[in-house]
Design goal:
40% of the residues lie in helices and 18% in strands. The chain has 468 residues and is α/β, with parallel strands linked by helices. The structure holds zinc ion.
Length: 468
Amino acid sequence: MPELPEVETVKRVLEPIVIGRKINNIDVLRATIVNNQTNAFIAYFKGEEFISVSRIGKFIIFHLTNNKVLISHLRMEGKYIELLENEPNTKYARVVFHLDNNHKLCYDDSRSFGRMVISDENSFRKGKEIAKLGPEPFNVTDVNQMLAKAKRLSLPIKTALLSQEIITGLGNIYVDEVLFASKIHPLTPAKMITKKEWETIIKESCRILNEAIKAGGSTIKSYHPGKDIDGNFQTSLKAYGKKDEKCVECHTKMRFIKVNGRGTTFCPHCQIKKGAPLRIAIVGRIASGKTGVLDIFNKAGYLTVSSDEIVHELYQRKEIQEKLIKKYILDHNQDFLSAVREHLKVKSKDLESLEKFIHPLVKKEIENAFKKSHSQLLVAEVPLLFKAHMENMFDVIIGVDISEKKQLERLNIRDKEKSAFLKRINDVNNYFDEHRSEIDFIIDNNEDMPSLANKTHSIINKVLDRLN
Ligand SMILES: [Zn+2]
C-alpha cells in the first residue's frame, strides 16, 4: 500500500503531465472505481481542464476548471500511467482520461480497491473521510492539540497514529520508523504520551517523511516519464521489516508483535513499554532462585504463573497423556511424568519434538492466565523463554544469576554424580549467556534471602515507575 511519501511522489509526477491539459473524453472500464456513477462521472469532468494537483494525507486532489474537484485514493495497488493515444491501455486500466495532447492517463488498479469521487472546491474538504483527518506533521503548529486529543484515547499509540485522526500521513511502515526514532513502545497507551514525546513524534515524522519523499523523487527520475508512477522505492528503513535483526542503535534483537492486527517491529531495549499491564518473564539457570523471585512478586500482590507448574498440570490431562503415549509408546504403568523422564533418558532425541508439542500449550496457558487477571504486573517464570520463542510475549525480562559453586551447593550434588550434572548445567548456562543482552534486569543471587528480596523489590519499584 502506498504511504504518504509515495503519494506525494505520484502527485509531483502527475503535475507536469496533467496541468493545463483538457480532458477530451473519459473511459470508465470498472464502474466501482467511480462508485458506480459512470455517466455522471464522465459528464462532470469531460471538457474540463486540470488547473493543479494537491494532496491531503493519502488523497490526491485534482483541481479543474469551473470549481470542479476530483478526489482520488490509490488504496492498495492503484497507479497512474501516462501513455500515447496509439499505445494499448495497461493491463489493469480502470479509468482512462484522454487528454488534448494526444496522450492518455490510465488509472491502473489490479485489485480495484481505489476510488475516484466527484466533488467541488467548496465541499471537498468537508467529505467524511477527509474532514476527520488530523493535520500533517509538516503543518502542526500546536502540539497541545495532539495532547488533548490523545488524552481521551487508551488505545496503543501505534493504532492512534494509524487512524490518521491525530496526525495524518503515517501508514504501517512509517509509524514503525517514527516510533523507533522517537524511542516509544508501539503499545504505549496514547494518553500516556507526554507533550515532549509528541514534539519528538512530530519532529521525527517530518524528518522521516521528508527523507522518503526526497528518495522517491530521486528514484522516479530514472523512470520513463509518466510510466509506472506507483512510487515504490527503497528507503533506508531501520525498524519496519527488521524482525530478528539487530537494532542499529543498541544491537538488541528487534522484536515482532501484532498491534490490533498490524505487524509491528520494535526494539525492546530502545522502546520501553509504559502503562499497565506490564508482562514480566523470569529466566535463569537450574536452582538459580527463579521461584524465590516469583514468590516475592506473588507476596507483593501481583499475578504470578510458573511454567513448571503448568507443564506438570498439562501432563496430568488425559488427552495429553493419550497423545504422548501414542506418539512415544511410553510405559504408562508408572507415574506419567516419571514415564516421560525415563523415556527421555533412553531416547534423548525425542526431547526436541516433545518440546515443540508442549511449548505452545504452555504459552497458551500463560496467555489465558494473563488475560483473566487485572493485575498491573503479570509475572511468569519461564526457564526456557528464548528456546520456546516466548520473549515476544513479555515487556520486561528478569534474569536470575548464580555462580556454579552456589548452584551445586543448592542442588546438593554428591561427588560421583557431579560430572554428569555439570555437563547438563553447562548447556543451560551457555544458553543463558547467549541471551544476556536481551535481559532487562539481572539479579545476582549469590547472597542470602533478604538480599534477594531487596534486589527484587528495587526492580519492582523501577518497573512500577513505568506505569505513571
Ligand atoms: Zn535498540
